[in-house]
Amino acid sequence: MTHFEKIAAELKNRGLDAMLVTSAPGEFYAMGFHGEGVAFITPGRTWYYTDSRYIEAAQNLITGAEVSMPPKGMDYRKLAAQLVQDNHVSKLGFEEQYMSVVDYNQWTKAVEAEFVPASELLTQLRMVKDADELAAMKEAQRITDEALLEILNFIKPGMTESEVAARLTYIMARKGAERNSFDPIVACGANGSKPHAVPGPDVIQKGQFVTMDFGCVVGGYCSDMTRTVAVGQPSEEMALVYDTVLKAQLAGIATAKAGVTGKEVHEAGAKVIADAGYGEYFGHGFGHSLGIEIHENPGFHLRNDKPIPAGALLSAEPGIYLPGKFGVRIEDVIMLTEEGCIDITRSPKQLLIL
Fold first, then answer.
1. CATH 3.90.230.10 describes domain 131-343
2. pTM of the entire predicted model
3. In what helix (H) or strand (E) does residue 20 lie, and over which residues does it extend?
4. I need a labelling partner for 79 at 20 to 30 A (CA). Which of 29, 263, 267, 277 fits?
C-alpha cells in the first residue's frame, strides 16, 4: 500500500471527506517528493499541484496522483475550493501543527469546508516505518557510523569544536549523505554539560571529554547518533559517569519493545542514573522518534503513557551533565519489535580514549 493509499484509508476512520497536505514533511511522506506544493487526498483520487520550479521533477517522480500546475489566475486555495465543491467535501483535514495562523485564515476564507485538525493522521502513520523507509534510515546510519570511525582518527588536542563539526559534515557528504539531519553538536570539556551546545572556537585539550551528536539524511530520512570520547586519560569521575550513562542506556534499550510506553522506557534508564546519585543531572527524555524529521512522535519520556507500536524507530540517548565540568551522552537508534528491539547503530559504545 502506498502512502497515498494509507492516508486515504484513514479518512473515513477520522470522519473526514478529504485531507489537505501543505507541509514539507507531510508532502514528502505522502509522495516521496521534496518540493513546494499542495496535495488534496480523497478516498478515490489524489491531486498534487506545484509550480514551474518543481513540475518536471514531480511528474517524473510521483505516482498515484494527478500532478499539474495551477492554471493561470488560479492559486492553490482556489484549486482546493474547486476540488471541495466537485467532490462534495464538507470535512477537510489539515495539518494544524504546521499551518500558521495567517495561512489558516487565508485557507478558511477561500475554501468552503469545515477545516478539521488532522496532523495526527499523518504523524501516527509516520510512526511505523515501512521497508523502504527503514532501508533509507539504515543507510543514513551506516554513513554516520563510518563518519565516527573516520573522525576518531582526525581529532587531536589543539583542534577547535568547529573544525571537528565541519569535518563531520564533509565526511558524511563525501560518503553519500544528502545533507546533515541537523547541525552537528561538538562540545569539549565544560561545554559538554550543555546538551545542545553549539560548536565554537573552544580548543580541545588533553584530559577532556568530547561529545559529538550528528546525523545525516539519505533518501529523505534521518540518522542520529551521539558518542562521547576521551582525549587522553579520563579522571575516575569521568569514567564513572560514562559507565553510568552506558548502563542507563542499556537498561532503557532492554525495556523497549512494542506495546510499552515511552514513560516505562524513560524510567528504566533514569533509575540507573538516579541510583548512581546523578538524577538531577539528567533533565531530558530518554529518546525521540525520527524519520523524515529529526524529532517526531512518539517519544521515550515521562509524558508518554501510550503504547508504542512495532516498527517505530526511536533514539536511546540518556545523559549526565555536570555544569562547569563535563557531560556524557550516548545515543543509538532502535526499532521496536514484538520481541524487543533492534539497534541499527553499529558504532562501539565502550569508552574510547584517543
1. yes
2. 0.95
3. strand 18-21
4. 29
